[in-house]
Design goal:
This protein is α/β, with parallel strands linked by helices. 19% of the residues lie in helices and 25% in strands. The strands form three sheets. Strands 5-11-8-6-7 form a five-stranded mixed sheet. It has a four-stranded mixed sheet with strand order 1-9-10-4. The protein has a two-stranded antiparallel ribbon with strand order 2-3.
Length: 298
Amino acid sequence: MGVMIAANWPDLLETDLRKVYMDQYNRLPMVVPDMFNVISTSKPYEKDSGVGDIPDHSEFTGRISVVEPEQAYDKTYTFTEYAAQMQIQRRLKDDDMNRVIMRYPKGLATSANRSKEKKGANVFNLAFTYEPTDGDGAELCASDHDSNVASTASQSNEGTYVFSATNVENVRIAMADFRSDIGEIISVVPDTMILPINLEQTGWETINSKGKVDTAENNPNFHKGRYSMVVWKRLSDSNNWFMTEIEMQKEYNLWFNRIPNEFFQDKDSDTMVGKYLSYYRCGTGWLEWRWLMGQLVS
């Protein structure tokens, strides 16, 4: 697409139009602030380093045994540049009888926020396929999360459960079995379901029904009030779903704003074209995987 010129927008130069329809759609709410620990930074990159769990005490037999945790994985966060511009002819701006054209540059903010939402959703959309080059080298949701301690078995936070009340419980139990880097039991208490819109009804019934879901039994519903639910329309698969401990997620699932949204104008005096520009720079990544379990449903 090129410069917006008067010859291509004849309707906006007319004076007898009753109304010009523009931006009539309701925008999706922002979900990224609820899914990430959003951090501002002035550095060209950020780097985190993990440290391991401390081994057990041993019986004192006259000399205290030395215990030492091991260095865990490093994680580097880099920041990608994003930009967009609109070019508007001076004549089109001046002769726009319906005052539409100058509303377009403001739409760059909408475009920027929508682009960020898609970037955030991709952390989950690619959770089963994207392998980073740092950390433990496995996907966010993987069956082979290695430990920095060679004697500790690999762990999995990936499953294939179809979403149901029964399988919500299966995932809760699986997450309760997550271990530290030395194989010790840790406290992971999932409290939030992250769902595509196709699973919203089943999710609502799971956490709001008084009785046991989809059975004729009169048992109370174990899940009632236990979980929150995030329905994200930008999740690309209608069957995949996730469970998370949201407080832990907000600690380890990171979004860095290196340069927040910037908007500026540049005028070309030779061509009488105004350029309206938007720019931001950001990066995402996770240091730790144990806050999440994803279900890759075929």
